[in-house]
Amino acid sequence: MAQSPSGILATNNVVNSITRQAKVEPFDLHVSRNLVYGHRYIFKFGICNNTQTSVTTLWNPATPTAYVYPASATLMQVSSGSANDTSAGTGARSIIIYGLDANYNEISETVLLNGQTQVATTKSFLRINDADVVTVGSGGTAAGIIYIGTGSATSGIPATTYGILPQQYNSLAQSIYTVPAGYTAYITSYTFTSAATTTYNVSGFFVSYQGAVPVIQASARMISGGNFDRHFDCPVVYQEKTDIELRVSTSTAGVLMTGDLHILLIKNNADAGNT
Fold first, then answer.
1. In CATH, which of 2.60.120.20, 2.60.34.30, 2.60.40.1180, 2.30.30.30 is domain 39-65+176-267?
2. Under a CB-based contact definition with an 8 Å cutoff, are residues 47 and 256 in contact?
3. How many C-beta atoms surround the C-beta of residue 68 within 10 A?
4. Domain boundaries, the chain
5. 38 contacts 270 by C-beta, under 8 angstroms
6. Mean pLDDT of 87-94
7. Is 216 left (phi over 0), alpha (psi -120 to 50) or beta?
């Protein structure tokens, strides 16, 4: 065995992180390194700058509401609140959308931005699971809030919004995820944080959808600021096509809250073809 220039143990010039004695590493690390067939780690982060006294999904429109999913797969319109987020602008120039098609199969598409003018996707999306800024201009980041939705836009904001990339985040920031066809999701933990500086009643809810009915699976309670972190001894299991989200409410509106979902996604019959 040789020592690599960086000090990492290497064998036959292949860098690895196995221990010298046990020759093993944590299973979670194997998954993150794409070394376990059919397994993926999904991390969903959401932010809400303006919580309501009613229960709303943990995402970030100007006035948050419970998220409404598309009734059918549809072409999405992408736009920004800033004219500088365009294919030749100083802000974000393109984004990639990750979602599901009409059959809940995973799809993705890269879209060139055109400022506040909407640009239509060429693929129809039933669900939006994630989105990231891919390229930027001299500003190094998105200049405005980027929206994914349907219907005509006003100042870049579509009539119906399904995805929001908050300014400076360059990524979808909503704790919403739908399990793709052919996969099972295992929720290992979830977290809520509150930036309240006054004594407020702060509530968080971990919700899944069975058909059209939202089912509260677990909850969190905080007084004013702080965080709530729950780890499941045995991960909670959700089958394909299940919608999963975090929801929040506060006794006084206007509190900043965030939330995380930690998901192990495993392909059904993952041993098939792995011979």
1. 2.60.120.20
2. yes
3. 10
4. 39-65+176-267, 74-165
5. yes
6. 96
7. beta
Using the predicted structure, report yes or no on whether residue 211 has a pLDDT greater than 80: no
The residues, ordered by sequence, that sit 6+ positions from 4 with a Cβ below 8 Å of its Cβ are 10, 15
Check residue 247 and report its DSSP letter.
Answer: E
Decide: helix, strand or coil at residue 218: strand
pTM: predicted TM-score of the whole model, two decimal places:
0.88
CB 242 within 8 A of CB 186: no
Task: Indicate if the pLDDT at residue 3 is higher than 50.
Answer: no
Instruction: Give 108's contacts (C-beta < 8 A, 6+ positions apart).
Output: 96, 97, 98, 99
Q: Enumerate residues 6+ apart whose C-beta is below 8 A from 15.
A: 4, 6, 8, 9
Residues 255 and 204: beta-carbon distance below 8 Å: no
Please give the Cα distance from 112 to 178 (Å, whole number): 25
Give the helix/strand (H/E) hosting 29: helix 27-32
